[in-house]
Write a structure and sequence with these properties.
Blueprint (H helix, E strand, L loop, with lengths): L6 H24 L6 H34 L2 H17 L4 H32 L1
Helix pairs in contact: 1-2, 1-4, 2-3, 3-4
């Protein structure tokens, strides 16, 4: 008997990982090769403004993956909330975490039914 898992939580985690990888490569690339002092200071300030957003998004990905792998509603909810906080921390990039927020909250809501179905399968098989 194979345990059911939330596809939406998996999709949210995959999109979140892709976004984090993209963001890290983009923001580290923005800080390299700056010859002008003013440009380097501007890039550093921009990175400092984005950093809390990236930390929240990274933690959200971790909780999202844990929620999916363990079918744990608390981890799924924590991931969804952290995605929402990341969206609030850097509103200019809301479109990059909007799908993750939606998928995570729906995945959290559906996880109760998935866990009940998994428990019924275990009881039936025992």
């Amino acid at each position: 008997m194979k345990k059911k898992r939330s596809i939406l939580l998996l999709l949210s985690a995959i999109i979140g990982v892709l976004y984090i990888v993209y963001s890290i490569s983009y923001w580290t690339g923005a800080n390299t090769g700056n010859t002008d002092t003013a440009t380097a200071i501007g890039a550093g300030l921009a990175t400092a403004l984005v950093f809390p957003h990236l930390i929240c998004a990274g933690l959200a990905v971790i909780f999202n993956i844990l929620g999916w792998a363990m079918n744990h509603r608390g981890f799924a909810l924590a991931g969804a909330i952290l995605y929402a906080v990341a969206m609030i921390l850097f509103p200019l990039y809301f479109m990059f975490v909007l799908l993750e927020v939606i998928f995570s909250f729906i995945g959290f809501a559906r996880l109760k039914k998935i866990n009940e179905a998994n428990a019924a399968l275990e009881n039936k098989g025992a």
